[in-house]
Amino acid sequence: MLDNILPSGVAAAELRAYPADLKAHPAEEHLIAKAVEKRRRDFIGARHCARLALEQLGEPPVAIGKGERGMPLFPRGVVGSLTHCDGYRAAALTHALRFRSVGIDAEPHGELPEGVLDSVSLPAERDWLASAPADGLHLDRLLFCAKEATYKAWFPLTQRWLGFEDAHITFEIDSRTADSGSGTFHTQLLVPGMTNDGGTPLITFDGRWLIADGLILTAIAHG
Predict the structure, then answer these.
(1) What angle in degrees, to the nearest 10, is found between the helix axes of 139-158 and 123-131?
(2) I want to staple 193 with a disulfide (CB 3.0 to 4.6 A). Which of 84, 109, 125, 202 is the partner?
(3) Any residues with CB less than 8 A from the CB of 145 and at least 6 apart, and which?
(4) Given the DSSP bridges, would you call strands 88-95 and 11-15 parallel, antiparallel or unpaired?
(5) Which residues pair with 171 in a beta bridge?
């Protein structure tokens, strides 16, 4: 599924069924030694996907450390993103010479819990949600998913927090049927985007989204 919304040059791996014999990489075990079982499975599953993606890129399947605010630490010259939700873990990685950053997120295709929307959206975004024909799609959760992908593309390049109120996201819908849909989204960053990689400041991101098989997926590959 993730391959459908990522550009060429980005390697992706997904895990739906969790293998009973899947274990943490020995060099990662200390990071989850005290974690509850669900947290362990999400951590192990997503990093397992990252190593599969590394192999697709021709890189060795090394341990993936954890940096500031939980940011995954990929090998030098590789950028990427991890995500997980109930029944799904995934990774998307690429070489830094191809894209500056990658952000992916996965969410269950369902309504946001009551009261959450106001805290994760801007008035203009809520106006769009109120007027957009849903046709069975939970666009409020799609907005949240796109905000999460935006943050994951932003943070490795800036090492700074990005609040939900700091990004305005608009959507285009390419296709829509009952319980499925796809399209693009555009993120306008509302705060200065000075970066730490020597590249131009971040102003916008463009991404793609997909709703299928009970999941919402969003992806940004920023060049």
Answers:
(1) 150
(2) 202
(3) 105, 106, 107, 209, 216, 217, 218
(4) antiparallel
(5) 185
Pick from 85, 90, 61: nearest CA to 75: 61
- Residue by residue, DSSP assigns 159-219 as -S---GGGEEEEEEEEEEETTEEEEEEEEEE-S----SSSSPPP-EEEEEEEEETTEEEEE
Exposure string of 129-155, with b = 16+ CB inside 10 Å and e = fewer, is beeeeeeebbbbbbbbbbbbbbbbbbb
Element (H, E) at 107: strand 101-108
Angle subtended at Cα 88 by Cα 159 and Cα 185, rounded to the nearest 5 degrees: 55
Q: What is the pLDDT of residues 31-84, one digit of tens each?
A: 999 999 999 999 999 999 999 999 999 999 999 999 999 999 999 999 999 999
Q: What is the pTM of this model?
A: 0.96
Q: Would you state the structure tokens that stand for residue 122, as one six-digit string?
A: 């801007």
- φ/ψ of residue 109, rounded to 5: -80, 90
Two structure tokens written together for 9: 């040059």
Of how many residues is the chain composed? 223
